[in-house]
Amino acid sequence: MAKLPGATHVSSRFYRIALVASLLVSLVLPFVVPVYYVQFLSKAMLMGILALALNLVVGYGGLVSLCHAAFFGLAGYVLALTSPASGGASIFITLPLAMIVVAAVAAVIGALSLRTRGIYFIMATLAFGEMLFYLFHDTKIGGGSDGIYIYYEPEAVIAGFRLVDLGNKTHFYFVSLGALFLTLLFLKGLVGSPFGHALAAARDNERRALSLGFPVFGLRLAAFVISAVIAAVAGYLSAAQFGFVAPQMLGWHLSATVLVMVVLGGLSSLVGPLVGAIALMGLEEVLKSLFDNWKLVKGLIIIALVFLLPGGLQQLGALVMPERGEAPDTTGEAVEEKAHG
Asked: What is the pLDDT of residue 158?
């Protein structure tokens, strides 16, 4: 498997130290920072989950999708439309329902879009995403262009006992943190499995993967649907956090922003998109307080980072603590052997 441009090997010791430090800081932060930043960090983690979802198809699958915001927003609409007017909906019913609805929609979109390649795949996913956007924007479904409010947060209640109060900012922060942690664990196992290696092999050389008997279409469709379901979890929690869903949550602008997060953090890297999401959102917060034309400044900074760190922000880890010894075997034969289990 050919290494992506700018990809680097960072020592496992550095990753372990960074992971433990990040976890400890994450556990302490909501008790030492103002509520505003607790909400901001919760939002950043949800966007990180969305970026991780997109990276499964972009970084590991080699497929640039511009409709993942549609899956994100669709899950929010499922919550809004199934929430009763007199109280909070059960998270144990509405969350699985949102995931199932998004999975079904993604399966249809993926089955059709994956019959194309390159720029045509990008355009197909963009078109499907815009179709979903206008479905909610130009009709009365979900309040039309004005969106729809969710007056009561989803409830996690078992036998009359409330497990967590999503209306509490600190509780919601830890729910977001838990969702992020589970997403990282799941993706780590997935990309390290024979499925993940086969998906990467198809990305690097589709013809060779087909000649070896890999079901490339099935692999990519499965990755596309799994990615959409992860995006649905982020969209569901985002709708619960803000109590409001609007068509803008499905728009291609959000898909493009998340794609920037993935590229900024580092393609084909497990934690890179998460770093990219937090970095981009943090950068926006700082620039908003300093400049009127902050979007222009943000664009210039991103362009500079792309030129200076072509492999994404993950390269900074290699600069701090480069890998010693030989790099892992990333040849096509090695990857194909792992893919076959």
From this structure: 86
